[in-house]
Design goal:
With about 200 residues, this protein is of the alpha+beta class. It contains five helices and seven strands, in the order H-E-H-E-E-H-E-E-H-H-E-E. The protein has one domain: Histidine kinase-like ATPase, C-terminal domain (Heat Shock Protein 90). Strands 2-4-5-7-6 form a five-stranded mixed beta sheet. It has a two-stranded antiparallel ribbon with strand order 1-3. It starts with a helix and ends in a 21-residue tail after the last strand. The structure holds adenosine-5'-triphosphate and magnesium ion.
Length: about 200
Amino acid sequence: MGNIDRFERLLEDLLEVSRFDAEVAVLEPVDFNLISLINRSIEDLELVAKENGTKIIFTPYSEDLQINADIRRVERILRNLLNNAVDHADSKPININVEYNDNDVAVAVRDHGVGIDANSLLRVFDRFWRADPSRSRIRGGTGLGLSIALEDARLHNGELEVWGRPGQGAHFVLTLPRIAGNTIESRLIRLEPKDYSL
Ligand SMILES: Nc1ncnc2c1ncn2[C@@H]1O[C@H](COP(=O)(O)OP(=O)(O)OP(=O)(O)O)[C@@H](O)[C@H]1O
Ligand SMILES: [Mg+2]
């Protein structure tokens, strides 16, 4: 990312944060195919993933999953989760999983990289917080990404939750109602990853 792009990203993030604080952030829901959105986000990151020696694995049950949500916000959440996963994956594969029922949809991003310790788990959604500030000189940004992602999820009456262990990777689970305005009724993906055992 060039310096001008970086500056624009920062400005956009700061403006968004101000809109949340002023309670003027509004949802602009549209109907769209969530699977296509995920596929596009993965494709756009494939080059960076390749450079990092990481594969993003996504094998959805179906190619079409219609939801009604603010596509700009959902895309921003997904891109941040994927970017974070690629940055921390330690060249190990990243798995994306989608589960849904009539009311809810859940998207999980699981990496098997450096992981997150118990103290950091309490802070990852804080504004400007980064476990390793020096990383920003390479690819990471300002530490606003996850704080905005959480506010974007909650604006949808949804949730964004995190699991992590040092050296065992991280697992971020986003749950949204399939129709904007509804509330979520379930957790379709368990936060502790299936592939994890002590
Ligand atoms: N998958 C992950 N594995 C390990 N640590 C993570 C992971 N995702 C996020 N983190 C930690 O949480 C911090 C905050 O993430 P966040 O997305 O908010 O900020 P960022 O990626 O540093 O910058 P930005 O997203 O604003 O460009 C990261 O800097 C990193 O320390
Ligand atoms: Mg980020």
